[in-house]
Design goal:
By secondary structure, this protein is of the alpha/beta class. It contains 10 helices and 15 strands. The strands form 4 sheets. The protein has a 5-stranded parallel sheet with strand order 12-13-11-14-15, sandwiched between helices. It has a 4-stranded antiparallel sheet with strand order 5-2-1-10. Strands 6-7-8-9 form a 4-stranded antiparallel sheet, with no helix packed on it. Strand 7 (75-79) and strand 8 (85-90) form a beta hairpin. It is elongated and about 70 Å long. Bound molecules: P1-(adenosine-5'-P5-(uridine-5')pentaphosphate and magnesium ion.
């Protein structure tokens, strides 16, 4: 690849757990000038031997870059402050590995460190996420369309329902409360839901660097909206909303169709009715609030999947990477759209 076509290195690396100020610390994209290495590879700014490279954020290391790849040894290497080798690991990975134990160059000096990759400078607050709320009755297709937008358009799909179910499965202190509310088709207390949402958004931003979010099934009540304000502030601009509109008979048919394989404790006639009642009583007032502020894009979700997806894609267009938007559908997306059969389960 022509080095001038490379994307700038914007990743930050944290080395921790070695217990040595000599090596533990934050590493920022290298500013070492382009140079020809011993193996003859010419590097561009932020790169060394063809792979991204980093300097110590405190600038104290005698060597730049201080965390880089060696072609001669086919290994990633972390320097000490005096410029000598502290840790290495033999691999051809494009980034320093985060899931292996690094080799300690001088045994007995310190334990192997943990390497963490940050997509945003961890010394700065996270950037503001770009959020679209997705509301609609049970079975209106929120999950299906958001997961398509994630796979095809690079948006991050967070379903508060899925987050709550995962938390229930993890069996923590709130698991029993969550199960009680979900089976009754009622809304789980605000602080549980909003805390999970905040954590999931932060983790997603730090680990993927993506800031476009589709929040599936949130805010389901004015109370949820209060929780949102508490976390994101009252002054922040109100996110836009997609509303999936669909008649009850269609919703019921879809949920009962899905009940055969979903394993969800609320996919049955009784819970379905209670979920719909909750939607009308609690979620509609939230929707009306957003409608009164001209924040809602109405989507006729009773149409076929392809038509619904086309509307969703169009409404997200302004914030979608055009390269991703132009990509052909993956096989999994074609299955979700009903254009290709799911493989038979044995
Ligand atoms: N399908 C989808 N689109 C279709 C189309 N256009 N044509 C034909 N079929 C279509 O879709 C449902 C089914 O329909 C699927 O089989 C799909 O293939 C097909 P899906 O995409 O799953 O619909 P979705 O709207 O996501 O339905 P879901 O049942 O997930 O909606 P709910 O809003 O009821 O469920 P959720 O998981 O969001 O919440 C569950 C419970 O968690 C709530 O009842 C509540 O107790 C609790 N909760 C909270 O307390 N607070 C929260 O903030 C969130 C959840
Ligand atoms: Mg869903």
């Amino acid at each position: 690849m022509n080095p001038t076509q490379r994307k700038p290195n914007t990743l930050f690396i944290e080395v921790s757990g070695a217990g040595l100020p000599e090596v533990d610390g934050l590493f920022v994209p290298s500013t070492a000038p382009p140079a020809e290495s011993e193996s003859g590879t010419v590097s561009s700014l932020g790169y060394w031997n063809g792979k991204m490279a980093w300097d110590r954020a405190d600038g104290r290391c005698e060597r730049s870059p201080a965390l880089s790849y060696s072609n001669s040894y086919t290994s990633w290497r972390i320097c000490r402050l005096d410029g000598h080798l502290a840790y290495d690991t033999t691999t051809e990975d494009d980034l320093p590995p985060t899931d292996i134990e690094w080799h300690v160059y001088k045994k007995g000096v310190a334990p192997a460190p943990t390497v963490t990759i940050h997509h945003f400078d961890p010394r700065e607050p996270l950037p503001k996420p770009n959020v679209v709320f997705v509301l609609g009755g049970p079975g209106s297709g929120k999950g299906t369309m958001c997961s398509l937008a994630e796979a095809q358009l690079g948006w991050t799909h967070l379903s508060t329902g899925n987050l709550l179910r995962a938390e229930r499965e993890a069996g923590g202190p709130t698991a029993a409360t969550i199960e009680k509310y979900i089976t009754a088709g009622e809304l789980v207390p605000n602080e549980i839901t909003v805390t999970l949402l905040k954590q999931a958004m932060e983790t997603a931003m730090r680990t993927t660097g993506r800031i476009n979010f589709l929040l599936d099934g949130f805010p389901r009540s004015l109370d949820n909206m209060e929780g949102w304000y508490e976390i994101f502030g009252r002054d922040a601009e109100l996110p836009g909303m997609l509303h999936f509109e669909c008649p009850y008979e269609v919703l019921e048919k879809r949920i009962l169709g899905r009940a055969k394989y979903s394993g969800r404790s609320d996919d049955n006639v009784e819970s379905m009715k209670l979920r719909f009642d909750t939607f009308k009583a609690k979620t509609l007032p939230t929707l009306e609030l957003f409608q009164s502020k001209n924040k809602v894009v109405e989507v006729d979700a009773s149409q076929g999947r392809e038509d619904v997806y086309a509307l969703v894609k169009k409404s997200l267009e302004a914030h979608t990477d055009p390269e991703l938007a132009a990509q052909p559908l993956t096989e999994a997306s074609e299955m979700q759209l009903g254009l290709r059969p799911y493989p038979k389960r044995s």
